[in-house]
Amino acid sequence: MTSITRLRIRDLNDRPVSGAGEYVLYWMVTARRTRFNFALQHAVRRSLELGRPLLVLESLRCDYPWASERFHRFILQGMADNRIRFGRAGVAYYPYVERKPGEGKGLLAALASRACCVVTDDFPCFMIPAMTAAGAKQAPVRMEAVDGNGLLPIHEAGKPFPTAYAFRRFLQRDLPSHLEEFPEPDPLAGYSSLVEPDLPDRVLARWPMAGQDLLACRPEAFRTVDVDRSVPAVGLPGGERAAGDLMNRFVRERLEGYDTGRNDTAVHGSSGLSPYLHFGQISSHQICTALFAFEGWSPGDLSDSVAGKRQGWWGMSVAAEAFLDQLVTWRELGFNNCVYLKGYDRYESLPGWALTTLAKHASDPRGKVYSLEQFERAATDDPLWNAAQRQLLHEGRIHNYMRMLWGKKILHWSEEPREALRIMIELNNRYALDGRDPNSYSGIFWVLGRHDRAWGPERPIFGKIRYMTSENTARKMDVKPYLARFGGP
């Protein structure tokens, strides 16, 4: 079992590893997968070192912010996949799903009290840092958080980067040393879990494991879970298997032309992998492994240049490099900001020039102002914007280019910039399968100037913020197919 660089492991408390514990507990919270998973790999290593079996706890609260049928179903489908995989590997798997708020309180502490140590996932966004910190206080043994978020360890940079260009230059200098540090494709391969942990009846009675009916989202079982039913599930299936199938189809069938197709509303040019990345059902390491194999690439093909250019550094096809710029540069820039930019999700975290120009134009007259409810219902006078919002409502995503326009028009039609930010966060986090994520916060704040520069001419409402309109979008590309698909109610 390959060791993991210490840069990826953080002690969440100062308690010792207990040699008297009955098992190693892996509390799976964001890396909800069995492959290419640094945290699972570290938990397996701990199990082998200590000679104790591994117990995997994957739990699902029903009262997390924006909890809904849409997100729950996606996660539950992933848990069903994990149950099968851990079962085949002979690893004890404890799937727990709350039915009422607060029912799961005490489960982690009860399991940790019998553990040698606890391993969990390191994720710097949403409610996860507070949740794992609280868990570490409850655990009487050491709790370690393992970072498997991207190719670059999230705690290496030491500072936030203001632009993708600056971060790209840093990556081109520092990332090569980490390209030989990928997680094991299957950390469970050849692993024998020794004797399965004997969990007390009182624990199983108070916190019963989720049954097959619930993990399969059968209506009679799923109805017992108290989540928001006004945000229904979408057709996209969740889980590690679905993620892997989609990845393989993208690399084989749609990678070619990605550099131009991803921003064309008439073309299905994106990878579609962002929901699976957000819920940890696939990792960027797994995607890169497939891409590297398809391109016949090795680290020796890297350019020596650290000029921060989007093309030419990897030594791959134009389409592959365009995809890697999204998957690695932009995605990991979002994680960098969540770790190092104080208040990354607050208006005040915008760059100074953006705050200045938005304040200057905050009181500019708005020709139209819409409420959150009107935005939510796609009830504006702009058919193209309404189509983007309907796609979000019905599919849980917005086309890459349309998402930028969607945000810019919310800024244009809101009473003031802070209200625009509130509306974007609420709609994105409530409906988008890839919301509540570092990458989605990057996209939202980009609308208001983060990771961008001042633009001219200075305009009403926008000031020096980059300007976009539906009219210009319609001139750049054929939007008729998009309107035909999402233009109706």
Please provide a written account of the structure.
With 489 residues, the chain is α/β, with parallel strands linked by helices. The protein folds into three domains: 1-148, Rossmann fold (3-Layer(aba) Sandwich), CATH 3.40.50.620; 240-340, Alpha Horseshoe (Serine Threonine Protein Phosphatase 5, Tetratricopeptide repeat); 347-486, DNA Cyclobutane Dipyrimidine Photolyase, subunit A, domain 3. The chain has 21 helices and six strands. It has a six-stranded mixed beta sheet, with helices on both faces. β2, α1 and β3 (54-60) form a beta-alpha-beta unit. The longest helix is centred in the C-terminal third of the chain and has 23 residues, at 318-340. It is globular. This is Deoxyribodipyrimidine photo-lyase.
Task: Count helical runs.
Answer: 21
Q: How much helical structure, as a percent, in the residues?
A: 40-55%
Write the CATH homologous superfamily of the largest domain.
Answer: HUPs
Indicate the overall shape.
Answer: globular
Report mean pLDDT, rounded to a whole number: 96
Query: In what range is the share of β-strand residues?
Result: 5-15%
State the separation between the terminal residues, measured CA to CA.
54 Å
Radius of gyration: 23 Å
- Briefly note the structural class of the backbone: alpha/beta
Q: Tell me the name of the CATH class of the largest domain.
A: Alpha Beta
- CATH fold annotation of the largest domain: Rossmann fold
The domain count comes to 3
Name the CATH architecture of the largest domain: 3-Layer(aba) Sandwich
Largest sheet: 6 strands, mixed
Order of neighbouring strands in the sheet with most strands: 1-6-5-2-3-4
Low-confidence stretches: none
The H/E string reads EEHEHEHEHEHHHHHHHHHHHHHHHHH
